[in-house]
Each structure stands twice: as C-alpha cells, then as structure tokens.
Design a protein that fits this description.
20 strands; alpha/beta; 4 domains; 5-stranded parallel beta sheet; 6-stranded parallel beta sheet; Rossmann fold; 35 helices; EC 1.2.4.1; metal-binding; single chain; pyruvate; PH_domain
Length: about 900
C-alpha cells in the first residue's frame, strides 16, 4: 500500500471518499480562493471559510469535523508578529549554551567517573527554551507573579549551562553534574529534582507523564486561588515542555478534558516533536504530529503546529498545485527521521524527487541549501509567533506541536540517530565539528590536550551577550528555573479546633474516618486558618461522610453550577461554585494526587501556604499512584494524605481489589511520608496538630514532609482522651493505652488502628479465661518507630565512642515483661518493622494474602488476626517459656473454635464511613 492509503486516518482527509465531478469548476473555486488570500490576507480567508462552513451547516450539507490539518505551520507567514529581540545576539549565546551543555555531559564521562547524561535532548529544544526565557517566562519577582515552567527532565544540562552564563553556577558545579555527594556542595542532580537542589528546580519532570498531568492541575490550582480571592494569578502562566514519545504515557493525556472544561487559558503545552522516543521513532509508520493534533483538538484545546522553519516559506509559496504539501502529508515519520540522519543530496532524491514539480522546485538549490532547510522547533521567529498566539488565546488551553531534530547541531553521528538518546560522549572530531558549527573560540590545541577536558566557554560578564541575557531576565522578573522555599507564616488552629475530637463519641459509635472528617470540619471553621485548607476528593465524598461539606464549603467549579440539581431540596444538596473550597476531581486518583502536589507546594510557587487534605479509598492511594507521591515528595509538597476505608478486613463486602493490607509498606519506602495508623479520634487530633506544626510551623526542623493517616469505616465507641494521655507517645508512635488489671503471667499486646479494640478484647479474655496479665499498647506508627530505631543504630555505628541512643520504642517498652503479640489489619511486614528493637519474644499476626468479600469478624478469624487469635498466640509463647501449662494453647483453640470462620466476634457490622 502507498503511504497515503495506510495513513488516511492521520492525514488531512477532508476530501477522502468524495469524487471530483467537475475538475474545471474546482480549479476556478481554488483560484478564487487563492486570489482572496493574495489580495486580502489569511485572516480574511479564514473568516470566509468559517462563514461558508456555517452556511453549509444551515443548508444541511454535511460539514466534516476537522481534526487534522495539512502538515504545514498553523500560523500563516503574513500573520507572524515581528520578532522583538536581537536575533544575532540571541543566536550567539544560544550557541554557547549548546556547547557548554554538551561539554558538561561529555566531561562527566571521564573513565574514572562515567555517570552518564544526555547530550542530544537539550540540543533539540534549545530554541524552544530560549524564546521563552528571553521573551515570555516570568520569574517570581515579576509584579504579576511568576510563571510555572515544567522543563523536560533529560534536557537539564541546558538549564545548568544557562545558569552558568547567568553567574548562578560555577565551572566546579558543572563538573559536579550527577555527582551530588562526591562533589559535596558542588554536586548537581541529574534531572530537575527540587529536593536535591531546592533553590533551583521547581518541578520534577523526568518520571514521564507526571509532568503534563501535574502542569494541568497546577494551572487549575492557579485559577482556584484566583477565583477564591486568595491571590490574583491572572497574569501567571503554566508552561509544560514535553516529548512526543512521552505523550504515550496515559497520564500525559489523561486530564486533557479537565484543562478544556475549566477553560485553562493559563496553560500551554509545548510538545517537542522530534519524532523519536528513547529507542527509535515514535510512529515510524505514522505521523505523531497529526495524531496529537487530532487528540488535542478533539479534547477542546487550541492547536498550533510549528513544523517548518522560515527557509520553507518560499518553497511553500511556490507550491501552486499543492504537490509539496501532498508529499509533506504523505511522508512518514520514520522517513523524516532518516532524512536528517543523511544529507542534502539524499533529501533531494528521496523527498523532493517524489514529484517532478517538487524536484524542479529545488533545482536551483545546492545540497547544502537543502540541508539547511530547518524544522520549525529550531526557528525562533516561528516559535515566538506560536508562543505569542498561545498567550493571546482565551477560553481554552493551547498545545504547540513543534517539529525538531533530536541532537540538532551535534553533527552526523548524533542528529536523528536511533541511539542518540543513549549517546553521552563526543569524539575529538565531533568536538571540532561542533565547535566550528557553533563558532566557539577554542583552539584545536585546547581540545587535543585532554579528550574529556574540553573547556567550557564564558564570554565574560561584561560581554554584550551576557548583559543582554541578564537584562531580559531582569525585565521578566528574575531567573527561571528558581525556587523560593521560604517558610511562610501561617496562623495555625487554636486548641478549640481539636476539642471535639478529644471528647469522644459518648455512647454513639463512629468510625475513625468520621472522627477525622469532623475534625477537618472544625479546622476549616477556624477564622484565619480555615481558608487555607483544600479538601481533595476523588468522587467518594459521600462514602467518607463528606457530603456535609457540599452546602457550605461547596465544590470548586470555575463555571459555577448552571443546572438544576436533582437533590436541591435536600439539606446536603450537591453544590458547585467558582468560589468552592473542595477540589472534587472525579474518579481520578492520579489527578487528585497531582492536585495535592500543586496545593502542597503553594508556599513556594505562590508564596502562600495552603494545606491539601487528600482523602481517598486507601487501596487506590499508594498502590495506584505511588510514583506520583514520590514526585510530590521531590517537589517538597506538604499536606495530609488520608487513606480512608483502610484495612484488609475492615471494608466489609467490597472484596479483593478494595482490601488494603499493604499501603503502609509502600508508604514506608517514601522518606518524606510520615505514616500513622490511629485508633481513636483523640489520637487523630494530636497527630494532625503535630503535622500542622511540623509542616507549617516555624520550628527548626525539616518541614518538607507529608502526613499519611490510615482511617477506617468501622463504627466503634470513640473514647474521650484520658486525662494523663501520653502525647509524646502518640506522635512518636507508641503509648501504653491500658495496663493489665490482674496479676498473673505477663504478656504485651501491641495493635494499631482498628485492631486496638481486638487487643482490648484479648486483654479481657486472657484475664477472664486464663488468668493472664496483658498490657495493651496503641501503636500509632510502626513506620516512624522503625525509622527512629534505624537512625539510632546508624548513629551508634558511625559514632562508636559516644553513648548509644536508645530507640524510642525500646524506651517505651523498657520494663514491659513477657512476650509481645502484635496485630493490625495490615500484612505482617507492618508490625514486623520494630522486631529488631525489642528484646522480648515477638510474634506478628498479619492479614497476609488477598482480601475477599465477607463479614469483618469472619475475615479476621480467617486471617487469624482477631482477639481470640491474639489470645492463643500469647498463650503459646507463655507455654514455650514454661509460665503456663503446655496444654493450655490447645484448649484455647478448642474453646474459641479458632478454625471456624463463623466463630469470630471481633468487629461490628455496617458503617459506610
């Protein structure tokens, strides 16, 4: 098949399937249209075409849905604005940036170092960046506020190279690329990692797909702040630089409809369409630009294609019969890639030679002239025109599809090659060719001294190039990227806000989810603090008992509520508002995590601390979006992550994929996450209070953490806070909840969250049935106890002359007699984390295996984590120690019918929230 037949779905196919019954008449219409364009310009022609389409629709003539246009630039030449900069001076220092970026990676490839890096990525996007940095991207000191720019991860050498020319980085720091520890304070992270270089990077982007998703929610959050009257963000813009291969990630396209529905005209995607992914072409047999154009246009975005540089303008103007455009339309991406890896003569034969008309069109051009036909991503005039139109587009987001060449300017060994992404070294000949092409004043002798010692080049701070560069950044409000991590003042809640949570529920039963939601409502009522709270919910508000928020706090929707709500007469009616406080993202945990990330870093991006409270079905948190939480940690986001309906047996009836028995294990791998598994409302109150002080207070500590609480939907009687409660124990991970009340052989029962009532039940059974004395401990955080223990061990190892610090859990259980039995509604690995820090015999009961639909009591008996199982395990350990008769454990198994799942009693029925 011909290319046009196999790719009709991604070509401009307006006449596909229709026959031309009068060629002469068709020619007359086309001539008339061409005359209109020539005499009155493209804007008038656009209006006439649109008016004709409108008239055709009124006459019931089928009008095609135009999802793809011809493979040419969207903005006509006569509509391109004047380029406002100094073209020559910008070209000069763009060459310096390309050189220094490549040399930095090359120098890091010394045999004794060999840490890798990417040379070709920045080479292909330099123009896209520089047009923005010289004319569009606002720094944080701009009166209208700074832009948020998501730079492509693999192109970080270019950002470092610019910072070097700007005087923000030294040569020693460039030489510390990818050597963050071995180069000490001169080390530079590989990619945009705010946590690694927190005064420089704003957004981590190299986990592909998260950048575009996070950018959309950042733009939405900017509008949210504006609509709620918290900050005027009307002049701030979000830019996301993406790869065409990256657009295959589901997250890259998964929230496009949100951007269109919310009319996010403060958002621009710039897709670097170099037609290559990491190993080869993105769509060798197709056309990724056309595919993306259709996708974005269908999602409601404004699409601008920047495919060809200015050198093509005259050729396209001479294309009277459309042969050149036809060839452009039909040429496959794999061929376009090959052309830039070959020569001008190859392009003449294999591209222009496909038609007599196009072959004649370039007959007076040399092979060098043909090779010099640039692609749009490398033409600053074309890119400037696209950026300007994007900024002027109102009512919808914009995507710019800019066609370029990966490895542009690096020479034939790099440009367009399949392996170019992995190529990290330049040969001596490569260096010389690259130097000559960029006109860098470095001699052959300097290059030949040391293959890996090619020098950086800086023209001096008083040179015209550097003065111009710095003046442009000064006018635009400061350097980009740049991150301000100042700890902003936030008035924290009064003690009154926590009082209800500490009172308990009296005789009523309430799940810890409800206890948390009630506390959240009280926090939102705090006069100074409340407006800073941003509840984020992925379409489960009613499950969590948060529908009570709808009438008062309202759901954020920039378009308001323009329909008649079906439940408008009810007290808890669904209510949307442009000033709404709740971010209700729909069935979209990835989007909710992106929203959390944007809100949680507001203290840096906007200078205003906001407190995200993301509450979700716990199984669909860290399991589904763990990578996004890691990016949130890298972005130094702060806030509360609430895993509601937690536990492998507590979410009765839901079944396998809803039963969360392992999220704390995943969370434990994220160093920024502080996980707590509270049993009661008063524990939640102290943990939340500590979390707010930790993240938003002024204490001398690391504020860049996230507090993750697992809460349950099982109703229990919430006790009032004991008068002498061990607050330090609650916030550090463990405290004695209820000492034994009888004398006898001793054991210790440790439990967390919903398992604490089982431990209390087991305490009673041990005393009543077996005369065994048991202390019950509430473990609010197994994870934090382990971290503290490991830190103590590490300190002892590295400082053998100092007195060893005793881990907190060891201190708390000092003097606690007897074996320990630990249980929770999670897998064994969760309680097992503290085993090494305790001298006592230690046994873990865990909900190991897959979840299933059943009653709570039945499921707990099946996993043998319930009260009776705790009793039996404690008796077995006491028998092994010889403290009770050896036959007692077997008697207990018979007494409690331990193998009968219908005999379990640990747990209540019901409780949706």
């Amino acid at each position: 098949m011909a290319p046009s037949e196999t790719n009709d779905h991604i070509l401009s196919a307006l006449t596909l399937g229709l026959s031309d019954q009068d060629h002469e008449e068709t020619s007359e219409w086309i001539e008339a249209f061409d005359a209109l364009v020539e005499s009155q310009g493209t804007e008038r022609a656009q209006f006439i075409i649109r008016r004709l389409l409108q008239r055709a629709g009124a006459k019931s003539i089928q009008v095609p849905t135009v999802t793809t246009t011809d493979y040419v630039n969207t903005i006509p030449v006569d509509q391109e604005p004047e380029f406002p900069g100094d073209e020559e001076i910008e070209r000069r220092y763009r060459a310096l940036l390309r050189w220094n970026a490549a040399v930095m990676v090359h120098r890091a490839q010394r045999p004794e170092i060999g840490v890798g890096g990417h040379i070709s990525s920045y080479a292909g996007v330099a123009t896209l960046y520089e047009v923005g940095l010289n004319h569009f991207f606002r720094g944080q000191d701009h009166p209208g506020g700074g832009d948020q720019v998501y730079f492509q991860g693999h192109s970080s050498p270019g950002n470092y190279a610019r910072a070097y020319l700007e005087g923000r980085l030294t040569e020693e720091q460039l030489d510390g690329f990818r050597q963050e520890k071995t180069k000490g304070e001169n080390g530079l992270p590989s990619y945009p990692h705010p946590r690694s270089k927190e005064d420089f990077w704003q957004f981590p982007t190299v986990s592909m797909g998260l950048g575009p998703l996070n950018a959309i929610h950042q733009a939405q959050f900017n509008k949210y702040l504006h609509n709620r009257g918290i900050k005027d963000t009307s002049q701030q813009h979000v830019w996301a630089f993406l790869g065409d291969g990256e657009m295959d990630e589901p997250e890259s396209r998964g929230a496009l409809q949100l951007a269109a529905n919310d009319k996010l005209d403060n958002l621009t995607f710039v897709v670097n369409c170099n037609l290559q992914r990491l190993d080869g072409p993105v769509r060798g047999n197709g056309k990724i630009v056309q595919e993306l154009e259709a996708f974005f246009r269908g999602a409601g975005w404004h699409v601008i294609k920047v495919l060809w540089g200015r050198e093509w303008d005259q050729l396209l103007e001479k294309d009277e019969n459309g042969e050149l455009v036809r060839i452009m339309n039909e040429t496959l991406d794999g061929d376009y890639q090959t052309y830039k890896a070959e020569s001008g003569g190859f392009i003449r034969e294999h591209f222009f030679g496909r038609s007599p008309e196009t072959k004649e069109m370039v007959s007076d051009m040399s092979d060098e002239d043909i090779w010099a036909l640039k692609r749009g991503a490398h033409d600053y005039r074309k890119v400037y025109a696209a950026y300007k139109q994007a900024m002027e587009t109102k009512g919808r987001p914009t995507v710019i599809l800019a066609q370029g060449v990966k490895g542009y300017g690096l020479g034939s060994h790099f440009e367009g090659r399949n392996a170019t992404h992995q190529m990290k070294k330049l040969t001596l000949d490569d260096l010389k060719v690259f130097r000559d092409r960029l006109r860098i004043p470095i001699s052959d002798e300097e290059l030949e001294k040391d293959l890996y010692g090619a020098p950086y080049y800086h023209p001096g701070k008083d040179s015209p190039e550097i003065k111009y560069m710095l003046e442009r950044r000064k006018e635009l409000g400061g350097f980009v990227p740049h991150r301000d991590g100042s700890q902003r003042e936030l008035v924290l809640p009064s003690e009154k806000a926590y009082s209800v949570a500490k009172k308990g529920s009296g005789k009523q039963m309430a799940a810890t989810t409800m206890a948390f939601v009630r506390l959240l409502k009280d926090l939102m009522r705090e006069k100074e603090f409340g407006k800073h709270v941003v509840p984020i919910i992925p379409d489960e508000a009613r499950t969590f008992g948060m529908d009570s928020f709808f009438p008062t706090s309202k759901i954020y929707n920039p378009n308001g509520q323009n329909y008649l709500s079906v439940d408008r007469e009810l007290m808890l009616a669904y209510k949307e508002s442009a000033q709404g406080q709740l971010l209700h993202v729909g069935i979209n945990e990835s989007g909710a995590t992106a929203a959390f990330t944007a809100v949680g870093s507001s203290y840096s991006t906007h200078g205003i601390p906001m407190v995200p409270v993301y509450i979700f079905y716990s199984m669909f948190g860290f399991q589904r979006t763990g990578d996004a939480f890691w990016a949130a940690a890298d972005q130094l986001s702060r806030g509360f992550i609430i895993g509601a309906t937690a536990g492998r047996t507590t979410l009765t009836g839901e079944g396998l994929q809803h039963m969360d028995g392992h999220s704390p294990v995943i969370a434990a791998t994220n160093p920024a996450v502080r996980h707590y598994d509270p049993a009661y409302g008063y524990e939640i109150a102290h943990i939340v209070k500590r979390g707010l002080e930790h993240m938003y207070g002024t204490g001398d500590e690391d504020h860049n953490v996230m507090y993750y609480l697992t809460v349950y939907n099982e109703p229990v009687v919430q006790p009032a806070e004991p008068a002498d409660v061990d607050v330090e124990g609650i916030v550090r991970g463990i405290y004695l909840l209820k000492p034994a009340e009888v004398d006898g052989p001793r054991t210790q029962l440790l439990a967390s969250g919903v398992a604490v009532p089982w431990a209390l039940e087991a305490q009673e059974l041990l005393a009543k049935d077996w005369k065994v004395s048991a202390d019950v401990w509430s473990v609010t955080s197994w994870n934090e106890l382990r971290r503290d223990g490991l830190e103590a061990e590490r300190a002892s190892m590295l400082n053998p002359k100092d007195d060893a610090r005793v881990p907190f859990v060891t201190q708390q259980l000092e003097g606690a007699v007897g074996p320990i039995v630990a249980s929770s509604d999670f897998v064994s690995e969760v309680p097992d984390q503290i085993r090494q820090f305790l001298p006592n015999e230690f046994a873990t009961l865990g909900a190991d295996g897959f979840g299933f639909s059943d009653t709570r009591a039945g499921a707990r008996r099946f996993f043998h984590i319930d009260a009776h199982s705790m009793v039996v395990r404690a008796l077995e350990m006491l028998a092994e120690r010889g403290e009770i008769d050896a036959d007692i454990p077997a008697k207990a198994i018979d007494k409690y019918d331990l193998f009968d799942v219908n005999a379990g009693t640990s747990g209540t029925a019901g409780g949706d929230a």
